[in-house]
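Entry 12.
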Amino acid sequence: MSFLTSATDVAIEKNLKQFLFILLVALSAAGLPKIFSSLRQVPYTLLLVMVGLGLALVDVRLLDLSPGMILMIFLPPLLFEAAWNMKWSKLKEELLPSGLYAVGGVVLSIATVGWALHAFAHVPWMTALLVGACLSATDSAAVIGLFREVGAGKRLTTLLEGESLFNDGAAVVAFGVLVELAVNPQPVQVSTTVLRFLVVTGIGLGIGGLIGVCVAFLTQRYELSWVEQSLTLVTAYGTYLLVEELGGSGVIGVVTTGLVIGNFSAKTGVVPVKRSTMIEFWEFAVFFVNSILFLLLGDQIHLPNLVRNIGTTSIAIAAIVLSRAITIYGFSALTNGLAKTDIPWREQTVLWWSGLRGSVSISLALSIPIVVMGREEIIANSFGVVWFTLLVQGLTVKLLLGSLKLLEDQSLQQQYLALIARRDALCQVATHLTQISDQLTISSTLQASQQAFVQQQLQQLHIDIQQMQEQHPQLQAFSVQQHQKELLAIEANIYTKFVQSGLLKASPIPIMQKAFDP
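Predicted 3D structure (tokens):
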């Protein structure tokens, strides 16, 4: 029985069914590695691409969005989540190299890809430059997840995340300028183009920063996690739309807002318990958006068109790899010489090979207006390069990290944490055995035997922990970090209990963080 009475109702029902089907397909793809062990080393995003391609082969099309809606729907949550999670204290230490990689990388990617396609395949300049613009946006999501899983250095992660944040804004602004020129050809004036870039960037920074400060102030007053989650989601989309309406870069506005909210809120008292719920919410939001995008990557591919453009795609791949090498090695040499950033060649090599293309490149390619000449070729080339970076580079980054000896020993930390966990558990057991002495639930002989066993095990654990610390001095800094997290969590949990019981209206500003500040 249906209560739908209008064409609009039927359209909404159709869209809802499509989204539910997409989510079901994405969840099914996430479960494939559990069934097929051979897929456990394949990045999740690549699995989605493969599933989407399989659906395309049987002519099942998931979603039909207009080009103008692509950026508006997909980019704000992706950009906000990445910026919200970025710690400014870490980012500012790598601000110079990350900024040069980002902005310089966009210029070099557009120029190199454009020149290569025009020179070697005689592709029209505008089409070639648009391919370069789509592919100038790096996507660190897949490789960052791998870095954290295998234990790559934190500096590598910070450099890559910082580059990705700035890169997205520069790439989208450059892409927008080229699309306008493609739709409405006119003579290019460098001074006018640069001035426009500065204006749209300034509007994005100003409006995004103002919104970020206001929202961060509000989120500090909310104790209900779902209110803060809803507010940040509205902020991500609202900032993008408002900044675009005012003539600025919505991408830069969203990134600025996310940075301000994530850092300002955390610095002035967002308790860890509350922040963890925000992380879970945004992880789901990004999972859902990426699921749609990467399924679309496979779903929207027309194999005959991809095959027809295999030559130009190969040229674009070579140009992207080359421009990435120039960007990383060139700007690293510059910052190492002038600013003493001291980025070793091994880390530079990983950064070069980790320049994957993904969500933003797909969004840009699909958002090109239908009236633009060569649109299908641009999409085919962009999709082909994204496929290469995910399949070839994404699957070999771990091997590269291992060969360059840049993997941290995660097993050592896990062994150490296992000893700490067992010590804490046995301490709780010892306390419990002491407390039941007056309850007469077991015989005194059995109780004494158990207490002696626990004390013996605790003594051995203390010896093992001390030996590990002496043999591996690097565990000392790790121990301090774990100790700090534990103290902060204890303080936060107490405040949360007072608020939940109604004794306090809002959590006090945590003070234990001051004990760790230099």
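Annotation: Residues 267-271 have pLDDT under 50 and may be disordered. The chain has one domain: 13-403.
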